[in-house]
Amino acid sequence: MMHYQWxxxxxxxxxxxxxxxxxxxxxxxxxxxxxxxxxxxKQAIEVGAxxxxxxxxxxxxxxxxxxxxxxxxxxxxxxxxxxxxxxLDAELAQVTTLATKAQMSVDELNQSIKILRKEMGLSx
Amino acid sequence: MKTKFNFFxxxxxxxxxxxxxxxxxxxxxxxxxxxxxxAYQAAxxxxxxxxxxxxxxxxxxxxxxxxxxxxxxGAKDIDHRAYLAKQKIAIAEQRAKLxxxxxxxxxxxxxxNKTILEARISDAEKARRIAEIRAQEAEKARAEALSARAxxxxxxxxxxxxxxxxxxxxxxxxxxxVLFGFNRAELAEGGQSVVSKLxxxxxxxxxxxxxxxxxxxSVGSEDYNIGLSERRAxxxxxxxxxxxxxxxxxxIRGYGESFxxxxxxxxxxxxxxxxxxxxxxxxxGQISTRTK
Lengths: 124, 292
What we know:
The structure holds two protein chains of two kinds. By secondary structure, chain A is an all-alpha fold.
């Protein structure tokens, strides 16, 4: 059992070395994250964020463009951080849009009920 | 054995974390983190969020705690991580709004269906009320018809009370002398009431016509008596026309002192002779002329 333990030790040490190295190492080109961010922004636009959450959407688009610029400039670290923000910004724009639209449906329905009651001569 | 092995893992991770921290600058400010913390506290106090997005809120909280721990251990990019935490909280809030609104949509739909149902019930209620009113109207009409028939019957009774006699010429009413002013052709009050009943009768039985015949006693000249008897008959006719009876249905005759019904030798007999007789026709409206 003891010898098994000592086989594991060098593995842990090498892991430590790898982690230490990656800590200061350069970040790879964030192509996947950029694609994911782009998709998130497109989805927000699709549900109507341009109309219902324009400022949030603009923020996401601005950061996505910036992330692309940073990628071009080979600042992958900065680009990567930006894509993380874009994804949450876009998600917020999307959810805000959906919430606004749902609230509009509620208002419309309540209005139609009010009209219906009035037409039928029922108490409001 | 197992504890020892875990001990090595912990050592490894700690060393690695220290190594990572070594190449990052120490955090100098946590303004973004404080903002995120404030945003979380606001969201956690919002009952809508705790009710409609508890999982998203929990995840946002865990994320915030992680960022705080990272800041404590001097991790870099704290502004960035705090921003992400803040966005996650905002997303939780919007998700709560969305879920609440969807809940309300469902409730509103149910409410609308209920309202439509109520409206239908109200329509049915209206229809029921209309049917009730119609039934009441029908009942009223039936009652009116009944009372009209009763009235007609009573009218016939009154006519018989007015001593309408069945003769070979038809039903004959006699308006006595007292129903006219003395020596005058104008109908007295009693005469008016008889004429009123007669006009009701004629309206009820439009196929029946009448012949009004005037008579006097033998006192006075024959010309005067014929004139008076004609004027009395005419007064009855005019009174009936005034009450809406077609003039074509009413014929008059003035017989003067002819056809006495009693002796002219006594006051009582003379009074009986001063009269107007009204002959009511059969259903064909025919009345034969007096012969005796």
